From TrEMBL:
GO terms for molecular function: phosphoric diester hydrolase activity. This is Phosphatidylinositol specific phospholipase C X domain containing 1. SUPFAM superfamilies: PLC-like phosphodiesterases. GO terms for biological process: lipid metabolic process. It comes from Gallus gallus.
Amino acid sequence: MEGPLQTSIHVCHENAQWMSKLPEKLWDTPLFNLSLPGSHDTMTYCLDKNSAVSGNESKLVKFLNKCMPCIVRPIIMKWSITQVLTVTEQLEAGVRYLDFRIAHKSSDPSTNLYFVHMVYTTVIVQDILWEVLKWLETHPQEVVILACRNFDGLTKKLHCHLITCIKQIFQCKLCPRNVVPTLRTMWQRGYQVIVSYEEDLEVLKHCELWPAIPYWWGNKTTTHALIQFLELMKQMGRPETFFVAGINLTENLRYILVHPFGSLKTMTLRSLPCLKIWVRKQYPGPQKECINIIAGDFIGNDDFVRDVIELNTKINPQLDCPSKGSGPKNISFSAF
């Protein structure tokens, strides 16, 4: 059942350095066995209402936007924005997985790359990478995962340009994929950035790039259906390394027509009470039904980030994560 609409937004600055505050017993646990908060479609807080529709969108959407821009464009914006906090505010709030959907405008002769979700952003990728670096330099014990995805309109030359930018900006902070990324190892070697790249051929060429991180996307319009999907995925078993459980709802044309005055924000905020209960029941760890990264929309609302971070209090490195039916007796954790 959906909860009442919640509209408050608060950034908990106490989470800005939460990794550095984890107990020493977790310093040798791989990051893919910890619980990490993430933001889905990280950069949609700065979508450009005047930009062209993304090349990935359907011909119908493009046609309607061209014929009735005054009607269609506001609808596109209402259902495209998934975050309101800036990337620095998200990091400050405790988010450690950033979902970067990267694209090149077909009409742009330059090598400028943008973020995209139906429409393009007002900022370019390079500027945001510098912004992330600036934040990391003042938080030397925090680690951020940058998931570079989508790549709409990117040619081989543009992939080369993007990877060169990533290497030049983060330099020795980039963690190579042959390293087991524990906090102790990352701190000792000065690594702070893990870049996953959704283009296998490019990953093979560069040791600084990690393979694409699987994202459990439910593509559901209701909280109940989304939780059912996530539970089914858990039963099938988690991947061995990084993966994301997406707690983001997804609209479809029917849903939009039935909710003409709605938006992705109202859809999301009503789902938070039920999703909060689901999140708090999860366990991080290496076992089949454990979670790793949990990513959501409008991460500044509710206590989502704090709840995901606090799941790490359930970890005891000497004990296995509980499997289905074993109950919590196989794991010790502090109350929260």
